[in-house]
Amino acid sequence: MYQQMIFVNLATNDLETSKKFFTELGYAINPQFTTDECACVVISDSIVAMLLTRKRYQDFTSKEIADSTTTSEVLLCLSAESRAEVDELVDKALAVGGSPAGETQDHGFMYGRSFQDPDGHTWEVAWMDPAAIQG
Fold first, then answer.
1. Closest to 73 measured CA to CA, from 86, 57, 87, 89
2. What are phi and psi of 131, to 5 degrees?
3. Distances (CA, A) of 34 to 81, 99, 124
4. Whole-number Å distance between alpha carbons of 11 and 19
5. Which residue among 63, 84, 99 closes a domain?
6. How many CB atoms lie within 10 A of CB 110?
7. Can you give the residue range of the structural domain that contains 18?
8. Rg for the chain (alpha carbons), in Å?
9. Do residues 45 and 3 lie in contact, with contact meaning Cβ atoms separated by under 8 Å?
10. Which residues are registered as beta bridge partners of 78?
């Protein structure tokens, strides 16, 4: 069966800082799709973040590019296998240059935290109890 992928394209003010941030979180940069204007961050087999300089991002849109430090253009949410994995990834993001984004959400069966990357994009990390999903 075909595995559909998602390619999230994000404008960055400093490509090298963004690359360093995401590699320090443990993600790989795919050199085949990385240039001096963009970086291909492999988050999973089906999720890729394309980090684009603002100049390169503008090549794909006629709209004004949002200033993600003051405007919310998207909320990205990554799943986690456990509450501990949520904490591990968010704590690591905060330690390597990210900033807090919102309060911890703890509903017992669902747990999530969020952070902003160096460009202000909001990334949520969430765990949900599989038993709660089943019914």
1. 57
2. -65, -35
3. 29, 26, 25
4. 12
5. 63
6. 14
7. 1-63
8. 16
9. yes
10. 125
Structure token pair of residue 68: 């993600």
Cβ atoms of 92 and 24 closer than 8 Å: yes
CA dihedral 53, 55, 61, 63 (to 10 degrees): 100
Residues 55 and 29 in one domain: yes
Same domain for 92 and 52, yes or no, is no
Ordered DSSP codes for 75-86: EEEEE-SSHHHH
Q: What is the DSSP letter of 43?
A: -
Q: Are 121 and 75 in contact (CB under 8 A)?
A: no
For 42-58, the pLDDT digits (tens) are 999 999 999 999 999 99
Report the C-alpha gap between 82 and 133 in whole angstroms.
14
pLDDT at 41 exceeding the cut of 80: yes
Look up residue 88 and give its two tokens.
Answer: 């591990």
Of 102, 15, 107, 6, residue with least CA distance to 57:
15
Predicted pLDDT at 73: 87
CA dist 32 and 28 (Å) reads 12
pTM of the model: 0.90
